[in-house]
């Protein structure tokens, strides 16, 4: 564990109402730790239940279902994945909750390609109010229907994002026009403004982007922005990382953590933001753990509710991909032995966190404060135990607080080393490691 002093900068508070804050403060001032903890627990439970509904729309065959799978970290053939390549015949909206974080739900919406398409009736039929924002996908230039839908979404007060899918196909189609040295194959053909004499992936991407944006501008969209993606390595390639970052930046603060939880750990920036958001909740979790211990007078082996802490540490590990399952998956993805990734991890993995591991960490956390308070409880006569409980809870607050804070920092640092290791020797490094 890193030293407590190493992470002593003050963290921001979570987005909770002033009324809730006042309630906690008033309870603590009265010495009613249990009431304060109950309120803290309520706030945490509410946070965990915040839902995010993401609508994915576009023409049939544009890659909507594939995009939904990519966002959920699923391959098309995996269990629970949206079916790919099916002809859309109904106006049904299919919800796909994220496999690990079911409060984030992706909606695979019906196609928008019919000739008598009306954006207002479409939005009514798909229940416009349900969604936080819309993704509008196209695998070629955006159509009139896509543009009119975007305008209607905006007019009704929500955000939309244009996503150009299947960019990998464009890139490989273009590549075929060039020989092994990267020189344009067609003999005698001069490079044009759009097709350079030498193969250049950046030029291909720029051309697609400009083409899409020009078409959208002609269809009346002001300063359109188009994100170029492909379903494979979605969160690492092309505009995938920028799209995810933009979605995150645009979310209201109370929804950021829900979205962050389901983002793959594919950039240093994602890791930094996960840590920042989780840090905001550390003091509430410490309060819950200490308050709960005040209820179990003296019976617990430590003076904190170990259940709350075990759950929190496991959550941190899960969020940073520090579990056997996640590491195996990553190792396979980057074609490296899992042992190599594990070698850079210093904290316990999710699967290794037990009550015993926790007590060891706690004991280390603040020079054995927990052991002392346990002894204190044993030494107190029964009629004094209620007061003892309050004292010990107050003493264990700093140790749980620093335990959580340090563990979170260590897990984030582990995740960063794992990412660095995973990307070692790949071309994606420079792009993601900024
Ligand atoms: N190469 C490539 N093919 C894709 C991509 N996204 C979707 N596809 C393919 O495009 C076809 C239609 O995709 P699907 O997700 O079913 O489109 P939907 O009808 O809009 O849901 C399927 O054959 C997919 O495998 C992509 O990013 N790259
Ligand atoms: Mg589909």
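Q: What amino acid sequence fits the structure above?
A:
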């Amino acid at each position: 564990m890193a030293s407590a002093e190493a992470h002593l900068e003050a963290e921001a508070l979570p987005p909770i109402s002033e009324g809730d804050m006042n309630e906690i403060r008033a309870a603590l001032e009265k010495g009613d730790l249990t009431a304060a903890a109950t309120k803290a627990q309520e706030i945490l439970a509410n946070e965990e239940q915040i839902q995010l509904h993401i609508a994915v729309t576009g023409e049939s065959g544009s890659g909507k279902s594939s995009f939904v799978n990519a966002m959920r970290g699923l391959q098309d053939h995996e269990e629970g994945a949206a079916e790919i390549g099916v002809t859309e015949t109904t106006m049904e909206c299919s919800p796909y909750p994220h496999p690990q974080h079911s409060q984030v739900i992706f909606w695979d919406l019906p196609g928008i390609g019919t000739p008598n398409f009306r954006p207002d009736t479409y939005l009514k039929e798909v229940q416009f109010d349900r969604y936080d924002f819309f993704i509008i996908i196209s695998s070629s230039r955006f159509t009139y229907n896509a543009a009119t839908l975007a305008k209607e979404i905006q007019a009704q007060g929500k955000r939309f994002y244009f996503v150009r899918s299947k960019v990998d196909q464009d890139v490989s189609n273009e590549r075929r026009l060039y020989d092994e040295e990267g020189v344009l194959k067609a003999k005698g053909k001069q490079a044009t403004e759009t097709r350079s004499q030498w193969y250049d992936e950046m030029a291909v991407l720029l051309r697609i982007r400009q083409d899409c944006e020009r078409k959208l501008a002609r269809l009346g969209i002001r300063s359109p922005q188009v994100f170029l993606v492909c379903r494979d390595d979605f969160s690492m390639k092309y505009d995938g990382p920028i799209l995810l970052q933009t979605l995150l930046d645009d979310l209201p603060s109370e929804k950021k953590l829900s979205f962050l939880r389901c983002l793959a750990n594919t950039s240093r920036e994602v890791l930094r933001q996960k840590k920042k958001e989780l840090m905001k909740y550390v003091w509430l979790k410490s309060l819950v753990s200490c308050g709960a211990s005040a209820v179990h007078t003296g019976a617990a082996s430590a003076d904190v509710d170990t259940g709350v802490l075990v759950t929190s540490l496991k959550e941190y590990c899960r969020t940073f991909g520090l579990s056997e399952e996640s590491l195996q998956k990553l190792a396979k993805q980057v074609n490296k032995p899992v042992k190599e990734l594990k070698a850079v991890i210093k904290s316990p993995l999710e699967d290794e966190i037990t009550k015993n591991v926790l007590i060891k960490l706690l004991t280390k956390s603040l020079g054995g404060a927990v052991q002392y308070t346990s002894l204190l409880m044993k030494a107190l006569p029964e009629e004094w135990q209620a007061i003892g409980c309050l004292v010990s809870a107050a003493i264990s607050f700093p140790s749980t607080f620093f335990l959580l804070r340090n563990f979170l920092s260590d897990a984030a640092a582990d995740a960063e080393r794992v990412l660095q290791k995973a990307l070692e020797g790949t071309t994606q490094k420079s792009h993601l490691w900024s």
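Q: And what stands out in the fold?
A: The longest strand covers residues 52-58.
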